[in-house]
């Protein structure tokens, strides 16, 4: 990342370089990012289909995150957003799922004071998504959730997704959806491979990036106790007469929101993100970019922008605020100063 910044200082906010045999354009700065990701969003919404070399290349072509911008991608995104909203995304029912999961997380924290609980956030994030996708919540000691989290952290989830889809096919009643999978099988019951990768696209990024961002955030709050304390003070003032936080409370917590955004910036859980690709000949900041040119956004976009925007801000806010309201996070007394 330092090299990208060094090149920006030398060549400006829009410059090109080679990644292997392919020329790439690196975009920096708010003005250039707004033009590419918002003003000309459709022009930059493609995905390069020949930059990755995997044995499972066909599988990658079927995925929503890596799929190129087109009719199939639009259909699947439309279906995903509509169905996720029906199951509570962005609504109070999703808040209740997140806050309900926090009760289990807080109990886990109480039992593990002074112990290493690195997968706790993975368990919480995975369970929140599992409730929407599969209609099931798993206890943190359940062997299934342990295997899920282990596989997500090791990027080997295909077999698990296949098993869950097979189970749903055998038990579902057409027209009576219990969860996201049933809705997909009702509406788009065509290609099993596509469904497997679709599920992974929703489950994997939502679990791994969210949990790693949370882990990084609390490590930094422990390292900078004055920021930790100021967040707690603001949270306590806003929630003084409330039983729990709501996503709407973020508007009254500017400092806590700023801390969360800074955590997202510095955590850098996906350093190079996923490349974009131009869908037609276009211009950016006066530079001509031919169709098929791929771009690496190098600006701070916590959940992306434009038609590829992500889905996780509610979970991050509610989890951090809920835990900061109930706990003080500190380094062990015998621990060395963190680097």
Written overview of the protein:
It contains 13 helices and six strands. By secondary structure, it is an alpha+beta fold. The strands form two sheets. It has a four-stranded mixed beta sheet with strand order 1-2-6-3. Strands 4-5 form a two-stranded antiparallel sheet. A hairpin with a 2-residue loop joins strand 4 and strand 5. About 6% of the residues have low confidence.
Topology of helices and strands:
Blueprint: H1 2-11, E1 14-19, E2 22-27, H2 30-39, H3 57-62, H4 71-86, H5 92-111, H6 120-133, H7 143-153, H8 158-171, H9 180-187, H10 192-223, H11 225-238, H12 254-267, E3 276-277, E4 282-284, E5 287-289, E6 294-297, H13 313-326
Parallel strand pairs: 2-6
Antiparallel strand pairs: 1-2, 3-6, 4-5
- Per DSSP, what share of the residues sits in E-state strands of 2 or more residues? 5-15%
Helix/strand-derived category reads: alpha+beta
CATH topology: Cytochrome p450
- The CATH superfamily title: Cytochrome P450
**How do the SSEs run, as a string of H and E?**
HEEHHHHHHHHHHHEEEEH
Record keyword descriptors for this entry.
iron ion binding, four-stranded mixed β-sheet, 339 residues, single chain, two-stranded antiparallel ribbon, globular, Cytochrome p450, alpha+beta
Explain briefly what this protein structure is.
The chain has 339 residues and is of the alpha+beta class. The chain has one domain (2-326): Cytochrome p450 (Orthogonal Bundle), CATH 1.10.630.10. The protein has helices at 2-11, 30-39, 57-62, 71-86, 92-111, 120-133, 143-153, 158-171, 180-187, 192-223, 225-238, 254-267, 313-326, and strands spanning 14-19, 22-27, 276-277, 282-284, 287-289, 294-297.
